[in-house]
Each structure stands twice: as C-alpha cells, then as structure tokens.
Write a structure and sequence with these properties.
Pfam families: MFS_1. Keywords: Membrane, Sugar transport, Transmembrane, Transmembrane helix, Transport. It is found in: Membrane. By secondary structure, this protein is mostly helical. It has a 3-stranded antiparallel beta sheet, with no helix packed on it. The protein folds into 2 domains: 214 residues, MFS general substrate transporter like domains (Growth Hormone, Chain: A, Up-down Bundle); 208 residues, Growth Hormone, Chain: A, CATH 1.20.1250.
C-alpha cells in the first residue's frame, strides 16, 4: 500500500466529462491501455537512435557509391566497434541495475508522477546525447556518462506501466492480452527507427533530438490523463468469491473479472498484511523462477543484440551486391520488429490455448535457430529474401522474450506459494527481469567485439545463446507435457465412463 494517495490527473479537471458517471469502466480500461502503450513505445523509440547512427559514427564501409562519411571520433577508428559496444554496455548495465530498484520506489510514490519523471529524464538525456553533434564533442566519457544516466531514467518505465495495467486488468487470457499490449516494444522500435533514419541525412544529432522530444510530448499526455488505479476514479472493488463487482456511487457493474496484480513484483497488493518479504535466495528456489530467469538472460541477449546492431549489420552487408544507405538500412531493420509484434501476440495466444508457457517458448526458440542460419546465408541474395527471413527471425526471436517478460513473470509471481505477498512478487520479478537485462547488456557488447572477426562469428554466438535458452526450459517443458498428457487421459476416462 502506498504511503500517500495519488492525485487525480489534471486533465480530468479540465475535461470533467471524462469522469464517471459520464464514462464507463471499460472506457477507462481502454484509455489506460492506449496511454501506457504510447508511453512505453516512446521509451523504446528513444532507445533506437544509437543503433541507427552506429553506421555513421563507426568505421566506414566501402561501397560502390560516393560517400564522404568519415565516422565520428572516438568511434571511427580501428577499435570503433568496440567503443560502440561499450556505449551499449553503459546504457544497459545502468538500466539493469535501475530495474531492481524502480519497482520498489514505484510502490511508495505516485506511479503517474514517477513514470512522467522517467519519461522527461529519458527525453532530456536523449537530446543531450544529440548535442554532441552540434557542439562537436569527441570525448568517450561524455557519451558513456549520458548513456549511464539515461539508462537509470529508462528503467523507470517498465515497472510503472506494468503496475498501472495490472491495476486495471484481470488474469483471463493473460498471454494473449499481454502479448498484444507488449507489442509496444516492437512498435516503439519501429517508430524510433523510422524517425531516426528519416532525419539522419540532416546530421546524426537530429536522430536523437526528435525521439527525445517525442517522449517528452507523450510524457505530458501521461501527466495530464493517466489514472493509476480504478479507485482514483471511484470504482470501488468488492470481492465476492472469485468474482468482483465494481461500482461508481450506487451503480453496479456485475460479473467483471477480479482485478489483481498482472506483473509479479512490480504491481501492488492492496492488503497491507501481505507486505512480509521473502528472502532473495528463497525467491530463487520458487518453482520455475531460476529456469525462466536464465532462459530470459539468453533470450534478451539475442533480442537486444538485434536491437542495437541490426541496422549496422544491414549497412555493412551487401544485398544483391549493393550496399544500402544509412537511411535505408535503418528503415529496413524495422522488418525485424514488425515480425516481433506478430511473434509476441502469437506466442501469447498459443500459450493460452495449450496452457504451456515453457513448451511454447522452447518451440519458438528452437525454430529461430534455422531461421537465423537461413537469414545469414540467404539474406543477401535479394531484397525479398532479406525481408522475408528478417521478418521470420523477428517473429521467432521476440516471441519467447515477450512471453517471458509478461505472462510468465506474472504466472510465477502469483503462484500459490507466494500468492498475496507483494514484496515476494517484487523479488520474483526483479530476479527475472534483472537477470534478463544483464543478458541484454552483455549481448551488444560481445557483438561489438566479435564483429571484428566477421559476422558469421556473431551469428554463431546468437545461435549458441538461443540453444542455451531452450536448454534451461527443457525440464519445465517436460513437466508441462506430462501434465497435458495426464489431463488428456483423465478427460478420456471421464468421457468413457459417461
């Protein structure tokens, strides 16, 4: 329970018709979904510029077209890819560390204000990075310092948006709902890639300035209109067994699903008696936490390597014998994220239908291995094969990543052993997301170093990472399969008996 009561967003004072009884619960649920979707999409859009400008900042590539690009010190020398990898490491390390604390801070202050604080800070730091272009900054320490601080601000976003969504939505069809909602990650990557690539020709600083302004503008909308909890608008929750009723004044809306915590550890529990924390090691021993955490470590390593290096790879790899421009390479890389949108939704839907998160994740992971091999071998044959294989790779790589960070984490955080313990939930989610973020920090760094030996080595690293990710889920998947088989036998026996 928060120590203070959140204030109602000022937009509802300016537009009183948005408040009940003029609006319904369903209206506000959709409104919250849209606002949180836009908020986190803008976070990811502001993360894309470093990957888009890599080919401009880093060592030049020989093309058959005339180009006067000489890179940007200190990233344009023989060790340029190493420095770019270290830049990613600086951001993602501070992001991973910040993730462990942001959820706990959000539990104690107004989530709306905390989210806006993170958005404003992220926007300002993104713009400051771009100032390096106009002020002719060539100090590695400047860029790393900005990325470290920006990573801390960025880590605020995920705990806040997931907490708010969890306050408004129940558990039914969690995989599908969260799969659709978490497409904000890929949508944000797409927006960031298109915007940053579109203004790159005016100077790489613009690729940071425009996304920075974008997240600030969305932050203003969030400040004005985001409602953290149904309680803030007078929707009173009244438990009745497994069902719940919500009312505004004397008007009841019956048979709605129970509103409960959707993301383990980042969501609040209204019962103050549930605040007893469990130990860190005890949380690690909870069923499923360790295998999914290590799986996410390797899955996120792969996903974030593509996030930060795919435009650079496309720029440095000829397609049908032609090297693409910086702008074209950046825009083309969005195909991977478009595939990721479908992958997240598809993985969530399938896992809901078969009620087996691990089986779904392992299937996607194993199928992504031949997809990456085919993309590396045949992606350069033609633009059509490049787009098709990139889309397929994005679908298969991002499917398990999206599923584990949302539905799986929520499932593990609400299992019977710790149900109702909000601090236990916080610990479980911190373990899963924090472990995954460490992998996200490591992948781009390794790619920066390994790419100097050739891109075959980078793809080999990614394939090994995917293999290890699937290995960690084999035992859990085996248990799920055994459960499905036993349930099938029980169903068959009951049908025969009847």
């Amino acid at each position: 329970m928060r120590s203070n009561t959140p204030s109602l967003a000022p937009g509802f004072t300016l537009f009183p018709s948005l408040k009940p009884p003029h609006t319904t619960l369903f209206f506000h649920q959709i409104f919250v979904l849209i606002l949180t979707f836009l908020a986190y999409a803008s976070f990811h859009a502001s993360r894309k510029p470093p990957s888009i400008v890599k080919s401009v900042l880093g060592p030049t590539v020989q093309t058959d077209s005339t180009s006067n690009n000489t890179g940007w010190a200190p990233f344009n020398g023989p060790e340029g890819t190493h420095r770019l990898g270290e830049l990613d490491l600086a951001f993602l390390t501070s992001y991973a560390i910040g993730m462990y604390f942001a959820g706990h801070v959000g539990d104690r202050i107004d989530l709306r204000l905390f989210l806006v604080f993170g958005m404003m800070g992220s926007g300002i730091l993104t713009i400051i990075f771009g100032f390096g272009y106009w002020f002719d900054v060539h100090l590695l320490g400047y860029f790393i310092g900005v990325q470290v601080i920006c990573g801390v601000f960025q880590s605020i976003g995920w705990p806040c948006v997931v907490s708010v969504v969890g306050n408004w939505f129940g558990k039914e069809k969690r995989g599908l709902i969260m799969g659709v909602w978490t497409s904000h990650t890929s949508v944000g990557n797409i927006i960031g890639s298109v915007v940053a690539s579109g203004v790159l020709e005016f100077g790489w600083g613009w690729s940071f300035l425009v996304p920075g302004i974008l997240i600030i503008v969305v932050g203003i909308l969030v400040f004005c209109f985001l409602v953290v909890s149904p309680d803030d608008l007078g929707f009173e929750m009244m438990s009745s067994g497994k069902e719940i009723e919500m009312c505004v004044g004397e008007e009841n809306v019956a048979n709605l699903e129970k509103v409960e915590s959707e993301e383990a550890g980042l969501l609040e529990n209204k019962d103050s008696d549930s605040l007893a924390a469990i130990g860190f090691l005890e949380a690690w021993r909870l069923p499923g936490v360790a295998p999914f955490s290590f799986c996410l470590f390797f899955s996120k390593l792969v996903a974030y390597t593509f996030l930060y290096w795919l435009p650079f790879y496309i720029r440095h790899t000829a397609v049908a014998g032609v090297h693409l421009s910086h702008k074209t390479a950046g825009i083309l890389s969005t195909i991977f994220d478009i595939g990721g949108v479908l992958g997240g939704v598809l993985a969530g839907f399938i896992s809901d239908v078969i009620d087996a998160r691990a089986v779904t994740s392992v299937t996607f992971l194993l199928l992504s291995i031949p997809a990456l091999i085919l993309y590396r071998i045949y992606g350069s044959v033609s633009m059509v094969t490049n787009i098709g294989l990139m889309f397929l790779s994005g679908l298969l790589v991002n499917g398990p990543y999206s599923l584990i960070t949302t539905a799986v984490a929520a499932d593990l955080g609400t299992q019977d052993l710790i149900k109702g313990n909000s601090r236990a939930l916080a610990t479980v989610t911190a373990i899963i997301d924090g472990t995954g973020s460490v992998g996200a920090a490591l992948g781009p760094l390794l790619a920066g170093y390994i790419s100097t030996r050739g891109w075959n080595s980078v793809f080999l690293m990614l394939i090994f990472a995917i293999f290890f990710a699937s290995i960690f889920l084999v035992r859990v998947a085996k248990t799920e399969i055994g459960r499905m088989v036993s349930e099938g036998k029980e169903l068959g026996s009951s049908v025969t008996a009847s």
